[in-house]
Write a structure and sequence with these properties.
Bound molecules: adenosine-5'-diphosphate, magnesium ion
CATH topology: Rossmann fold
CATH superfamily: P-loop containing nucleotide triphosphate hydrolases
Low-confidence stretches: none
Distance between the termini: 21 Å
Strand order of the largest sheet: 3-4-2-5-1-6-7
Number of domains: 1
Order of helices and strands: EHEHHHEEHHEHEHEHHHHH
Number of helices: 13
Structural class: alpha/beta
Shape: globular
CATH class: Alpha Beta
Mean pLDDT: 93
Strand content: 5-15%
CATH architecture: 3-Layer(aba) Sandwich
Largest sheet: 7 strands, mixed
Helix content: 40-55%
Length: 281
């Protein structure tokens, strides 16, 4: 499935996919955007930081208890390199799996030194070396605990998936407030850069109302492409697949490819830098 190549960013972009609400499409978005990018020649790492390990499942990556994982990075000082595993989908895609061990991490971290900085330190190693990745995505659990905090401190950007449903905006103030606090006290570089509308159902007026409201609130940060509600999207993880590989022609797959393309294009390095990179490699 070799495809056209998308532009690379000037430096590695680290995006945390966050929304403390469950079931809004965090994991689905992280997995499918990462996959779409990797299939278009970008080097991508997905860090699964949800004890449920749904992102690991969707990428077909083993994540039984005992598998080297995000837990070992946060609590045992392992490097990301030592726990990141290959993903069959593309040789430019790797995944740090999440195991159930991570369920205790929120509490175990509480008593640790520099508990909010564990992931930042590990990700920092990847950023200072010869560039290994163009994009690093971090999939968060549905809470604003220490795992999500670690993700927000490790990233420069926040990607917020918003489900086109009742109460979509409820709770967002709390997330924005957390982002502000992290920026003020732990990570001055953090910004919400990307908002993605998910599970859009064109048959309902409600979906349009929510989309309008979100665009009014977040303006330019909202990606143009909207992810439709599409059963193929929800079927894919059951086969250890992303929808992009499971059914590339489905509306869900097309939506995610278009959304990923826009993220890549928005973050593209200036043309001169691109040309230099091309001639270097
Ligand atoms: P979160 O990570 O925020 O908890 P998920 O990505 O796991 O949310 O999505 C919640 C559920 O909705 C999952 O069962 C997923 O398969 C399903 N889902 C996500 N996006 C879509 C979509 N566009 N169409 C249909 N089902 C979807
Ligand atoms: Mg999830």
């Amino acid at each position: 499935m070799r495809q056209e190549r998308w532009p690379r960013p000037a430096v590695t972009r680290v995006l945390t996919v966050a929304n403390q609400k469950g079931g809004v499409g965090k994991t689905t978005s992280a997995v499918n955007i990462a996959a779409a990018m990797a299939l278009h020649g970008l080097r991508v790492l997905l860090i699964d930081l949800d004890p449920q390990g749904n992102a690991s499942t969707a990428l077909g990556v083993p994540h039984g208890v005992g598998t080297p994982s995000a837990y070992d990075v946060l609590l045992a000082g392992h490097t990301i390199d030592s726990v990141a595993t290959a993903v069959e989908l593309a040789d430019t895609l790797r995944c740090v799996p999440a195991t159930l061990d991570l369920a205790g991490a929120d509490i175990e971290l509480t008593s640790q030194v520099a508990r909010e900085y564990r992931l930042q330190r590990a990700v920092g190693v990847l950023l200072s070396e010869e560039r290994t990745y163009d994009y690093i995505f971090i999939d968060c659990p549905p809470s604003l605990g220490l795992l999500t905090l670690n993700a927000l401190v490790a990233a420069r950007e926040v990607l917020i998936p918003i489900q086109c449903e009742y109460y979509a905006l409820e709770g967002l103030a709390q997330l924005m407030n957390t982002v502000d606090l992290v920026r003020a006290h732990l990570n001055p570089d953090l910004a919400v850069t990307t908002v993605l509308l998910t599970m859009y159902d064109s048959r309902t007026r409600l979906a349009d109302q929510v989309a309008d409201e979100v665009r009014k609130y977040f303006g330019e940060l909202v990606l143009g492409p909207v992810i439709p509600r599409n059963v193929r999207v929800s079927e894919a993880p059951g086969f250890g697949q992303t929808v992009i590989t499971y059914d590339p022609g489905s509306r869900g797959a097309v939506g995610y490819v278009e959304a990923a393309r826009e993220i890549a294009e928005r973050g593209a390095a200036p043309a001169s830098a691109q040309e230099k990179e091309e001639s270097d490699t």
